[in-house]
Amino acid sequence: MKRVSHLIFSLALFLFPGVAFSEIVNPIVFVTQVPQPDDFATIGSTFANHRATMASAPRGGDLYIRYADGTLKNLTAAAGYGKSGFQDERGIVVRDPAVHFSGQKVVFSMAIGAPERYDYNDYRFQLYEVTGLGPSETPVISKVPFQPPQYNNIMPAYLSDDSLVFVSDRPRDGSKHLYPQLDEYESTPTNTGLWKLDPIVGKLQLLDHAPSGDFHPKLDSFGRIIFTRWDHLQQDQQAETDANGAFLYASEAKGASISQNRREVFPEARSLVRRENSDESLHTFNQFFPWMIHQNGEGLETLNHVGRHEFESYFDRSFQNDNTLKEYNPNLVDRSNEYSLTNMFHLREDPTHSGRYYAINAPEFKSHSSGQIVSFEAPPELEARYIQVQSVTHPDTSDVTSSPASTHSGLYRDPLPLSDGSLVAVHTSETAADRNIGSDSEPQSRYDFQLKKIEKVGNYFRATDPIVSAIHKSVSYYNPDTLIQYSGPLWQLQPVEVVARERPAPAEQLLEAPERDVFEDEEVSLTEFQDYLKGQNLALVVSRNVTRRDQFDKQQPFSLKVSGGGAQTLVDGVTSYSVHSLQFFQGNQVRGYTLYPEGRRVLARYLTDSPLLESEELSGISQGSVKIFPDGSTAALVPAQRALSWQLVAQSGSPVVRERYWVTFQPGEVRVCATCHGLTAGDQFGRSVPTNRPDALRALLRWWKSSDRGESQTTLRLSGQTRSNRAFKSGKLFGGGRIRLQFLPGSSLSGEDLILRAVKGNDRCDFYSMNPWNAGSIEKRGKLARVSGKGEIQFLAILDGQIVAETDGRLRGKRGRKRSRARSRFSALCSSLKRLR
Predict the structure, then answer these.
(1) 817 burial via Cβ count (<10 Å: 0-12, 13-18, 19+)
(2) How large is the angle between the packed helices 526-536 and 513-521, nearest 10 degrees?
């Protein structure tokens, strides 16, 4: 689609009266959307709403601004985007606006183009920014640079450093053969989680690998990214019969062999068809809860550690043969929240009350994520057990019904608390489930979503007057061979207030005293150790005493002791369990289906990507596990930027306590989960978090110091897509010295010369390779160095994945040797590299 730059637009053409309300102080930006009555995997759905297909996201909507006097401007049209009538290569669909801290620009997502008849084109949502928002200004729209161009990028928000957090369906590691990731419900294409982009330097970072998807990230006033996460960690219901042709890939590799083995190793079975242990309860898990994460990707967890025990109304015990375990009933525990719910969509913080959040409690299907407006308070210092959900609109509005009571005031979505203390939301007076009340070629939705004031009437709030008049449009488009036509009011969605706001400082994750003391005792630099983790794409996960559990959690075993003696937390009259190891599972995309020829689902597989598994002293009894030390502590090196889960196992290898969520860690992250199920109100006896110095961490650091991992890091990986973006990641090398290796463009503009530059401090050495450079878009990985059978290090020159030259050098050294020796090794490295000229 080409921008219509040859037309000269008059601003008056795009300004027209709206509905004037003097109490709306600041401008509001919102989107319009051609109604789509289908609510499975479409643009308004609760999940799988990210695709830009014609069926999912009908073309014809726009980005609007409503000024304080009620005047409207079509921003996209004024900037030369979009059209009425037949939707061709100029047709657009717009979504997810977010306002910059300055109040002077808005980032949003847009897909451009629509097909001719019988054509099928791959359209992608991409991120754009618009400036020139004033009534007399001409809007200018520009595409955000360095975003993944081949994938759907949606739901952006600005972070404190002006980078962007957003949702994308880019594969976790960029491997195209893994696209699309399929969700854990019905194997529908989903987004892969939260991503962060620095649009100045082009750095892209995966913050959260979500097997079923993340949604609507926002930056709150405390510097936390808050968002809704779909948690569906359960066995694959699509593989319970042969109907979908489920099979298993041997690995995530392209061309990996396949088998018909449908057995899963974690968690327990969801149906009798797959049940292997008759003592275990069947397990299903499906919720949309609020989560939080630091801006650097560390500290991922549910918001304030809130969970099922604070929000849900019922779930079963894990073992049916243990009557000391109890089914969960909120009336039998001392929790503050009296309003149970499973879903929270469209989170938004109140700008007049830090820590107060509005959300939508809605059904998973049928209503385009519209339902009841609720609110709750969750500032960082508030413990999860004190979080209370409040009904803003009547509880009847939380679900669809064809026979509403007088208290059902319709369905709501996209709540927007304004800086003047008032509340706006999207509303439809319809209460029934949406469906197509038109025809295939002329679809009609029951819903007439419109921006309205939300005001208190009696005991609850409800929609009153619209703040924007109905916006009508006539459009037509092919999908793919049927001409779809619509003429009528557009949905008004996703309002945001255009106002400057304070830029919050990023929240930090600091290492607490017990673990910090262990690093000091063992004379290991935390920074140096984290550099090692980053170079290996690993994180460190530590627990202090896994026998201590939250006092509310009596659905899984809670009278625990370490096998062989040591820490124990035993409750009188309750069945006790011995635990030996902490077993990890990594989320691998290895489930395929003959019914769905593209994409793979994430399955829990035994942890393999950890060097710690090689240690007899530290590894546990079961595959992918680490030992629980006598003090109850554990320490594990785990792969970063990949979904992980875990369970406590007995010496027999049988599961005892299972984690219920997927969790992602960042490279270099040191994460402490002091107990197994973190404490909200104290442990089994009401005690606070244990403060012992974990012996498992001490043993891990000693192992690290005594192994090659404490000496040098000899493997650096090459990744990039273009010549201008070729760089090796930083790493630690040779006796504590730091070294950076980079491919840089050569002196020739043709790109035939390459320079490999090694840099240590202000020292550097270069060598030239005259092999031709492939200037096309590529993504290759290869080792720079490898250890030979003689204990020597071979340095390799690699172009496009091929070794073109190599040399040997005896450059290994122990940690802690004198800096002069490290410098001499650096000189030897330079000499070795120069021999490759």
Answers:
(1) middle
(2) 100
Return the SS3 of 226: strand
Q: Write out the two tokens for 619.
A: 């590894």
Predicted local confidence at residue 18, as pLDDT: 56
DSSP H or E stretch at residue 464: strand 460-466
HEC per residue, 416-462:
EECCCCCEEEEEECCCCCCCCCCCCCCCCCCCCCEEEEEEEECCEEE
Per the prediction, the chain carries an average pLDDT of: 86
State whether 810 and 830 are in the same domain. yes
Write the pLDDT tens digit of every residue in 722-756. Answer: 222 223 333 333 233 333 333 333 322 223 223 33
Q: Looking at the structure, do residues 490 and 343 belong to the same domain, yes or no?
A: yes
Domain residues for the domain of 756 are 718-834
Question: pLDDT value at position 164?
Answer: 99
What φ, ψ does residue 330 adopt, rounded to 5°?
-65, -20
Q: Are residues 531 and 680 in the same domain?
A: yes
700 plus 769 within the same structural domain: no
Q: What secondary structure letter does DSSP report for 236? A: -
**Residue 142 domain-assigned (yes or no):** yes
> Is residue 72 domain-shared with residue 187, that is, in the same domain?
yes
Burial class (CB in 10 A: 0-12, 13-18, 19+), 757: middle
Q: Is residue 271 part of a domain?
A: no
Domain C-terminal end among 658, 684, 708: 708
* Whether 476 and 587 share a structural domain: no
Instruction: Tell me the C-alpha to C-alpha distance, in Å, between residue 650 and each of 226, 342, 576, 580, 667.
Output: 36, 32, 12, 5, 30
The residues with which 85 forms a beta bridge, in sequence order, are 475
Cα 246 → chain centroid: 26
Do both 785 and 652 map to the same domain?
A: no
| HEC letters along 321-361 | CCCCCCCECHHHCCCCCCCCCCECEEEEECCCCCCEEEEEE
* CA-wise closest residue to 637 among 621, 615, 658, 653: 615
Q: Does one domain contain both 582 and 722?
A: no
| Over residues 526-555, mean pLDDT | 96
The DSSP line for 566-597 is S-EE--TTS--EEE-EEEEEEEEEEEEESSS-
The tokens for 522 are 């063992």
Asked whether residue 317 is assigned to any structural domain, the reply reads: no
Overall domain count for the chain? 3
